[in-house]
Amino acid sequence: MEPLEIVFYLQAPVALGFPWIFFDSLLAHVRLKEELGERYYSLPTKIPLGGVPDIPIKRWRDVPVASVSIFEPSTGLHTFSYFKRGDFPFLRGKISRASGFFKDFYLKAVYVPAVRVRFYATGELREVERLVKLVPALGKERNIGFGFVRKVEVKEIEREWGLVKDGVAMRPIPVKYLKAYEDATYMAYKPPYWSKHSVDLCAVPFTRVELA
Amino acid sequence: MSDEWLDRWRDYFLAWYDEGSVEDKASEVAEFASRFLDDGLVSVSGGKDSMVMLHIIVTRCRPDIVVFHWDHGPWLMPRAVEEEIRRNIATVAPKARLIVETYSYGFKPQARVDWRPWYKAFFSTLRGLGYRYHLLGIRAEESSRRRARGRIVQRKHWAEVHPIYDFTWRDVWAYIFKHNVPIPSVYFTYVRLLGWGRVRLTTFFDMEMQRYGQPQVDSVLSWRWRHNPLV
């Protein structure tokens, strides 16, 4: 496995559901879609699938050596608000605007108008390259055009920066694996990131840390 | 964004205080509210509207009022915010009798996804308090439903009174900056993203607010409270 730098060049701003995107979760998502095929789109909502698909990323203890997203240039957060209301000009009859196809909703997307998104990881170059080329868009609200990827570049670099770069954490790292840290809070640090079993007291990305 | 941004907005709102006759509006609110205080309870969530209402009543009507505050519990209202709210209420109304009721279900993470028990707990608590008038910081401008309610609403067991019903968001912020009314500092994080007219203090990560897109904003701005609201 080689230290890698992955750069996504964007066509549209990235909408976020968390301040950062995790590179390993992005690969896990692509692998899961590959494994399940069309079944991916009819997953059971009440019973989560067991396990996480194998991804070509190195692990240090149980932490994937893959950074969170670095948005370039850093322009801060913005919001996109949209109110979908069902004012449909039907001639007769009634439609429900409380549920179903015509349901009203208010969309509030937080987005970053970035041009590039950079990740660092340690993994298998060819396989990572293959998987990232299957990513059409990054972040949330991709169905309405957010986060569209123009091109992606993967290149080998000399140093491993997936965990720590210049003394700064590049992803959440549990404090139990650290000798020293500047700031910590409870965060998910390994996939699946939605699971409470992945949550631990972690050093916050982009704060100073020292690995144990 | 720098504090210069905030300073410019402060200047704007202080100018609006005079231009928008906010002082006159506040006097009218005090006169209106004073009629209901003898058998009334001032409900304060800790948000900007209820804090403005509380400040007007305490400084212009009388200080020895009864204040009711509902604590949603840590999974809906992080403790840091809740503690700040209580400090703010004590600062604005030191002589008031403060009644705090705590939502016990709010100590469980399920409270974020199951909001139905809240209504029963909240309204039975209000009924149990036994006051004739409940003064709330609701404003007509907030939604069409609130606009349709009117300034006084007769409920089954009490009457709901909305003293600052005709305040606009500019009036509220002008009053806050003019009189240094303390509000939770989290407002100034959200206001930069959502704007002065749209920012609201709501329960955090509450799926009931999903139709307004609020949990998604919380996940980005208040991510530290996502897994541990006790910090």
Strand element count of chain B:
6
Measure the end-to-end span of chain B. Answer: 25 Å
Instruction: Write the H/E string of chain A, N to C.
Output: EEHEEEEEEHEEEEEEEE
Could you tell me the mean pLDDT of chain B? 92
Number of domain modules of chain A = 1
* Backbone shape of chain B: globular
Inertia-based shape of chain A = globular
Spatially, the strands of the biggest sheet of chain B line up as: 3-2-1-4-6-5
The CATH class assignment of chain B is Alpha Beta
Number of DSSP helical runs of chain B: 9
Helical content class of chain A: 10-25%
Helix content of chain B: 40-55%
Query: What's the number of helices of chain A?
Result: 2
Pick out the low-confidence regions of chain B: none
Low-confidence stretches of chain A: none
Which fold name is given in CATH as the topology of chain B?
A: Rossmann fold
Topology readout:
The complex is a heterodimer of chains A (212) and B (231).
Chain A: E1 2-10, E2 14-16, H1 23-36, E3 59-60, E4 63-64, E5 70-72, E6 78-84, E7 105-112, E8 116-123, H2 125-132, E9 149-156, E10 164-165, E11 168-169, E12 173-174, E13 178-181, E14 184-188, E15 199-203, E16 209-211
Chain B: H1 3-19, H2 22-34, E1 40-43, H3 48-60, E2 66-71, H4 79-92, E3 97-102, H5 116-129, E4 133-135, H6 144-149, E5 152-154, E6 159-161, H7 169-179, H8 186-194, H9 214-221
Parallel strand pairs in B: 1-2, 1-4, 2-3, 4-6
Antiparallel strand pairs in B: 5-6
Helix pairs in contact in B: 1-7, 2-3
